[in-house]
Structures
1.
Amino acid sequence: MNRYRGRFAPTPSGPLHFGSLIAALASFLDARQAGGEWRLRIEDIDPPRCPAGAADEIQRQLDAFGLHWDGPVLWQHARDEAYQTALEHLAERGLAYPCSCSRKQWRGYPVYPGWCRNAVCEPDKPVAWRLRSDLGLCPVIWQDRLFGEQRFDPAELGDVILKRKDGLWAYQLAVVVDDADLGITEVVRGFDLLDNTPWQRQLQDALGAAEPRYLHLPLITGEGGQKLSKQNLAPALPTRDASVRPLLHAALRALDQAPPEALATAPVTEQLAWAVEAWSVARIRPRSERPLVDAQARA
């Protein structure tokens, strides 16, 4: 088997928040307990969403929480050639096609109905590139490490966009190409990305890439049951040690790891040493959502 290699892959649309910390911490602990590598990838393929300085702040936040990555940071903005090569490979096999349709045109359908699969409907308009989900791996089945067997019919998901009309690369293709090139063997991320996995499995199969194992984590929700996110103005993670210590302890509790109460004031290095040794996926309760612990009040 390949040596364990995991990753944390934030979008620098703003600083990390408590929900981001859960994903980063779980992927870090999973990698470190296995004696593997933990890589950092900055998913900055959408420049309008990535304000200046956000990626640097993310790295400072990870460093403050003791989540030190291995090797150089991988930046998606520098990966255009790799993504283009993958898209051309898919197009040559008839698995990717140009599409002129707008969301407004197919608004009454649950998913894009594939009107451009055989020919572009409006050749004089800009085109995006889509994956032909009907010709790929079907059904898509995998064993999630927390939520068990997952089974999807790609026809119910539609033909996902791989390259946008404005020339920017879409998430699904970029993440698969990057994971393959980094040799990622384990993907640990939030439950909100579970239904992205079928498209990614189809792309891995079409590109001859290895299939990583998946662990999807329960989402942390705030007041009103909304997922913690930058769009919902979730508070940014602190970088001051006095605030970091209780917040790291709260994240371990949110992951159901039951850290000793005395650890809440212990240095980050001591908390992480305990957490790496004690890490157990079996302790995590497999709910799709998890209410926010009173982390900010303790910080």
Note: Helices lie at 18-33, 54-64, 80-92, 171-182, 197-207, 241-254, 268-278, 295-298.
2.
Amino acid sequence: MSSNTNDSRARDKADVQQRDVAFARNAPTYGRWVSWIVVLVIASNFLWLVATNPNFEWMVVLKWFTEGSVLKGLQVTLGLTVVSMILGTLLGLLLAVWRLSENKLLSGISSLYIWFFRGTPLLVQLIFWYNLSTLFPTLSITIPWTGITFASWNTNDLITPLTAAIAGLALNEAAYMAEIIRAGLLSVDNGQVETTQAFGMSRTRALRRIIIPQAMRSIIPPTGNQLISMIKATSLVSVIAMGDLLYSVQAVYNRTFEIIPMLMVAVIWYLLITSILNVGQSAIERYYARGTRRTVVVTKRRNQSDDISQRALVQKEDV
């Protein structure tokens, strides 16, 4: 009798587990496996063709990959990216706050700035800054409509290829970062803002302590995208004779005529840098997403399911 009872309980438990969604399993998807195999075959075939194509001249790529002039150009690219991104982010934060301000003057200035720098190509802006001396041979601090001058500089002495590159990249980036930061600030629940006002916090302190930390979850992903775009945008400074990574490889293949392998050197370096940045972006996103993700522990879920099954069996026995 006890054996039959145990068998009945085992069948009932198995029946409960079959109906429990905690033990649900996806049906086998053979189409997915087939698609994976097809994609892997195509990808491996493409990589094999690239690796064995003699026209890429991989030995030349290996020779110049860590050459001194290329590494120096890489340092310039990274330096321009860091400086321009920091300046662009700080200015973008200021513009975003102005854009959200109730002061019509500040809001108008911010809107006009964003309209202009987003509406003109970055390449044109770089060339404009590099040739600023054509419009203004000297830069002066004066009182308008008077002859009083406090200081004056030769424009060519101030606007070097380096300063032109930083000015063009940073000012252009600020327009995009302003909209990204503004969107992040608007994503914070309005109740948070009202709470800071109820506690008598100043707007600056509320932004620093409450609003911006919460907005970072929405700001980080597009900012990471902008940083990667900035890495690639620095290649445009080669038109103003700035010795970045692309300019360095161009200088080499202009002498050696090894165009494809030298371009592959630049491509590999860009891909390596962006890959590292992607890893860093993912880590920062996880940091700011703490407390917003629900993690499911399989063992805990199964234990809970076993408890439910046991209670269901007991109720069935009582009936």
Note: The chain has 14 helices and two strands.
